[in-house]
């Protein structure tokens, strides 16, 4: 009886240990991506669309340097998918150029040659 109890306790701790070990890969990762955003509307659009990307936990775009910081679950998404989301929205994402259809849908102020005062103006 004592060996059964000991075996059960040992199995429990082994299972808990394996669960903790496998969830170490679930750790949140962070990536910084340079965009072509120019105004507050761009910021809202990029952050809103990234919120719908599976695995993205948080995104914040800094308009001063045009860099979006994205926190994500690497088991559910990756940097390529995040960049694809940004380019389909109409913006450059590091070395990946904006999708033409997405770019054409942007308001004039959000296009690269639009105003760059960093303020929303619509």
Automatic annotation (TrEMBL):
<feature type="signal peptide">
    <location>
        <begin position="1"/>
        <end position="22"/>
    </location>
</feature>
<feature type="domain" description="HMA">
    <location>
        <begin position="28"/>
        <end position="94"/>
    </location>
</feature>
<keyword id="KW-0732">Signal</keyword>
<dbReference type="Pfam" id="PF00403">
    <property type="entry name" value="HMA"/>
</dbReference>
<dbReference type="GO" id="GO:0046872">
    <property type="term" value="F:metal ion binding"/>
</dbReference>
<dbReference type="InterPro" id="IPR036163">
    <property type="entry name" value="HMA_dom_sf"/>
</dbReference>
<protein>
    <submittedName>
        <fullName>MerP protein</fullName>
    </submittedName>
</protein>
<dbReference type="InterPro" id="IPR006121">
    <property type="entry name" value="HMA_dom"/>
</dbReference>
